[in-house]
Amino acid sequence: MHHFKYRDNVMFCEDVSIEEISAKVGTPFYLYSYATLKRHFQAFNAAFEDVPKLICFSAKANTSLAVLKIFADMGCGLDIVSGGELYRGLKAGFSPERIVYSGVGKRIDEIDYALETGILMFNVESHVELELINRRAADLQKRAPVAIRVNPNVDPKTHPYISTGLRKNKFGINTEAAIESYRMAGRLEHVDVIGIDCHIGSQITDTKPFEAALISLKTLINDLKQMGTDIKYLDMGGGLGITYADEMPPSLSEYAEAITQQLKGMDLQLILEPGRVLVGNAGIMITKVLYRKSGEVKNFVIVDAGMNDLLRPTLYNAFHAIEPVVNSKENLIVADVVGPICESSDFLAVDRNICDVESGDLLAVMSAGAYGYVMSSNYCSRPRVAEVMVKGDRFHVIKTRENYEDLVRGESLPPFFEA
Ligand code: PLP
User: How many CA atoms lie within 13 A of 364 on its CB side?
Assistant: First the structure.
């Protein structure tokens, strides 16, 4: 479900014409629908209404303050992986006791920041990290609530770059070693063991990997109980996929059913860390056709957005549907939709059936709300694009387009150049 629909052949976001926004804001830009974001959270929350739970939006998918604020205002929690995400989360209004902190490489300053803030829990990914968190808690005279991130060795059958729960992945601690981690945590003076955590990957389109991970975690929880360690929170991470092309991910109720079935009879509070499923289809990227070019073997549609603006096609060979903002042309061509960057990997689509566009036409790159703007860069000294949000018949630029001054902010020439 989303609110990007045609009215008389012009694409609208809710009640605003995207042509009109483009004329005022320029291109490229990311565009988010307030109603879609809100609806996605409500639907996700409702799917788990029968179980005690905390839904922690995974900030890495989209860290715009306006997007975060929508979720914070609805009582959502936050899953963070850096001090920067913690800073943004607090600025957007998330309460610290609804924040969980994952990630294999937490720095000392980031651990201190989270301890001072008083977050709900650290999802700990190694023994050395556990010891460090204990030491920092001692120094700061705090207690550190922790969960161990377990790597259940489950294949999520997704792109290898977004598989995280296999033995060969850098994430978490394998199931056997996790018992030892809990023993160790139990001996540490400034650590409170409160949870167990896993996240097996992203863009998962089948419930089975989630079930397999849960079965493995349940065994571990029972073993821990026998050891005298009671777990309060079970954090299942994120990972539910969305439809980019013709994928058929489980519905929210199927996903919720698969998870809650496994939890029957267990006295646990469930934590979920959805990212993509909440924001992916709530955002699109608008770009303008600069040139058409016919090579010897290919047609190219050269647009003003490049891999620095939307990296997913380059990084994962990811598919994003590309639709005309004004749907006025009947003829289709087969073309690569490419950006202005000097890399052959700078493409948004390859060998795509696309309408017969010309210079100046606007294209909507669909499903770009997750891992879109957050992965953008200044490569080739291209200012980052604007972000816009629509609510009903109003729109607002939630992040201004960078300018050339922004590109050199913070740079200086060394004094020794003078000598
Ligand atoms: N939690 C953790 C620890 C993650 O690493 C990720 C993404 O990689 C997520 C949650 C969110 O995943 P998704 O966007 O697939 O829901």
Answer: 26
Q: Which residue has the higher pLDDT, 385 or 328?
A: 385
Q: 3.20.20.10, 3.40.50.2300, 3.30.70.100, 2.60.120.10: which CATH number matches 34-276?
A: 3.20.20.10
Q: Residue 320: which of 312, 328, 330, 332 has the closest Cα? A: 312
- Span from the CA of 274 to the centroid of ligand 1 (angstroms): 6
Mean pLDDT confidence for 143-172: 80
Mean pLDDT of the chain: 95
- Cα 401 from chain centroid (whole Å): 21
Active site residue 342: yes
What number does the ligand 1 atom closest to the CA of 276 have? 14
Q: Are 352 and 322 in contact (CB under 8 A)?
A: yes
Ligand 1 center to residue 235 CA distance, Å? 12
Task: State the catalytic residue, choosing from 13, 76, 342, 355.
Answer: 342
- Average the pLDDT over 210-226 and give the result: 94
Q: Give yes or no for residue 175 having a pLDDT over 90.
A: no
Compute the radius of gyration of the chain from its Cα atoms.
Answer: 23
Confidence class for position 391, pLDDT limits 50, 70, 90: very high
d(CA 199, CA 210): 9
Report residue 97 CA to chain centroid gap: 21
Q: Is 58 in the pocket of ligand 1 (CB under 6 A)?
A: yes
CA 344 to chain centre: 26
**What is the layout of strands, in order, in the sheet containing 4-7?**
4-7, 10-13, 16-17
How confident is the model over 18-57, as pLDDT tens digits? 999 999 999 999 999 999 999 999 999 999 999 999 999 9
- pLDDT-above-70 percentage for the chain: 98
The CATH topology of domain 4-32+280-405 is Lyase, Ornithine Decarboxylase; Chain A, domain 1 (2.40.37)
Dist. CA 149 → ligand 1 center (Å): 13
Protein residue whose Cα sits closest to atom 6 of ligand 1: 238
Q: What predicted TM-score, i.e. pTM, was given to this entire model?
A: 0.96
Residue 81, both tokens: 């992986």
Report the atom number in ligand 1 closest to the C-alpha of 277.
16
Ligand 1 centroid distance, CA of 237 (Å): 6
